[in-house]
Amino acid sequence: MKKVYPDATAALAGLLKDDMTIMAGGFGLCGIPETLIDAIKLSGAKGLTVISNNAGVDGIGLGVLLETRQIRKMISSYVGENKTFAQQYLAGELELEFNPQGTLAERIRAGGAGIPAFFTKTGVGTLIAEGKEVREFDGERYVMERGLFADLAIVHAHTGDTEGNLVYRKTARNFNPMMATAAEVTVAEVEHLVQAGEIDADHIHTPGIFVQRIIHVADAKKHIEQRTTRPRAA
């Protein structure tokens, strides 16, 4: 099956629609599928539910979809760096489902593994547990969380081959591998595209069976979310 597409718009053709659910990899601005996000913006798809650890920052990453008001709901862990997000949420224009970060990661992993729900101690006795089933195991209380599965997952990888096998680099690995398994269709943007068989099988993080479409983004931007410096010595 031909998996390599010439650009992001072509790779997303026929996949985008209003009111769909999209998983977007990344942590802060590290490992975000920025080229695919920009193509979603250009598509005009609206009413989106987006599952992502955070919402980028103003003007970068998912922040561009917030500016165009294409996102209806975020399922996230941390959104503190995005003023547009805060403004829309506080004005009642954006729905938010907050998750402890580990719970969000496990909900995505569970969805990819076909597990509809699981129990965790995290959040018991807090607002997180309101409206959810709480059950006791071995004398401890646990809250039930549902697995997450999306219509589309968009991920960013350092290296990919023409069969869709992916390798992530360092911190950019974050949420990308689990999201790649937890959607009907996964589209990956890769910085280095090689031929099938060129990646050592022991180095593959996401097997190609989970990836349906790929684009090559050789000049991927590497944004710095928080730049901290000290004065240069005289």
From TrEMBL:
Keywords from the named record: Transferase
Single Gene Ontology MF annotation: CoA-transferase activity
Keyword Kinase found: no
Key word Chaperone present: no
One Pfam entry name: CoA_trans
SUPFAM superfamilies: NagB/RpiA/CoA transferase-like (SSF100950)
Protein name: Succinyl-CoA--3-ketoacid-CoA transferase
